[in-house]
């Protein structure tokens, strides 16, 4: 109990640093997730239309996903320097696989009978995609995006090591100064941010599904 009180007191005493790091972390995570969403969903849709590309695209994103996050950040430094650019690029590459794969799997697993019925009623490919396949695949796509968001918020802590800021600054300073309370404070904030984002997306998912089913 005494340790937890020391952590809370530390958060209050260093509130300016905490708020700045929290803002930076939210900004980095938001921009990275936005870029992943803008690229990942269209790419997942594209490979459902060109199935021969699917295995290659999923293999490449899978290989990128297996690279350790710290190493990926390190690879970006010689190419893009330090700071926000290499951080966003590394997070973008790292987050592509879950969203591309879930979008692809969600669409190709739509009941073939429903697809054939829609085609039989004269639906064009665009109508089939936007009125049938995407609404039915939405739970898969949202699940993939929620995975991306939680993962991105967690991995963004490494951004502090290449000068991009964020809550990783608290953890990094705690490690270098052997200040356990600071490490725990940073970790708690990252976990709380991940849970809050996942809960918000879960709420939006339910509202969206309810609206589609009406």
From TrEMBL:
TM spans, by residue? 25-46, 53-73, 136-162, 182-204
Determine the domain of life of the protein's source.
Bacteria
Instruction: Name its cellular compartments.
Output: Cell membrane
**Which keywords does this chain's UniProt record carry?**
Membrane, Transmembrane, Transmembrane helix, Transport
ABC transmembrane type-1 domain ranges (all copies):
22-201
The record's annotation in Pfam families points to:
BPD_transp_1
Q: How does it sit in the membrane?
A: Multi-pass membrane protein
Main localization of the protein described in the UniProt heading: membrane
Which family does the UniProt entry place this protein in?
Answer: Belongs to the binding-protein-dependent transport system permease family.
Q: Which PANTHER family match?
A: GLYCINE BETAINE/L-PROLINE TRANSPORT SYSTEM PERMEASE PROTEIN PROW, OSMOPROTECTANT IMPORT PERMEASE PROTEIN OSMW
Please report the name of this protein according to its UniProt entry. ABC transporter permease
């Amino acid at each position: 109990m005494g340790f937890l009180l020391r952590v809370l007191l530390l958060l209050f005493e260093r509130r300016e640093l905490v708020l700045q790091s929290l803002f930076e972390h939210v900004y980095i995570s938001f921009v990275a997730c936005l870029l992943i969403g803008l690229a990942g969903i269209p790419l997942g849709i594209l490979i459902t239309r060109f199935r021969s590309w699917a295995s290659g695209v999923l293999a490449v994103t899978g290989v990128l996903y297996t690279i350790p996050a710290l190493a990926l950040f390190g690879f970006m430094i010689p190419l893009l320097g330090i700071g926000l650019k290499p951080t966003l690029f590394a997070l973008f590459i790292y987050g592509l696989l879950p969203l591309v794969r879930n979008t692809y799997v969600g669409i190709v697993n739509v009941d073939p009978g429903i697809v054939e019925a829609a085609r039989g009623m004269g639906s064009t490919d665009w109508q089939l995609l936007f009125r049938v396949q995407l609404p039915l695949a939405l739970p898969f796509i949202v699940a993939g995006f929620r995975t991306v968001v939680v993962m991105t918020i967690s991995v963004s802590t490494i951004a502090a090591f290449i000068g991009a800021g964020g809550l990783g600054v608290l953890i990094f300073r705690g490690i270098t100064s052997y200040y356990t309370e600071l490490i725990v404070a940073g970790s708690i904030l990252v976990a709380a941010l991940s849970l809050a984002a996942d809960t918000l997306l879960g709420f939006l998912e339910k509202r969206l599904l309810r609206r589609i089913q009406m």
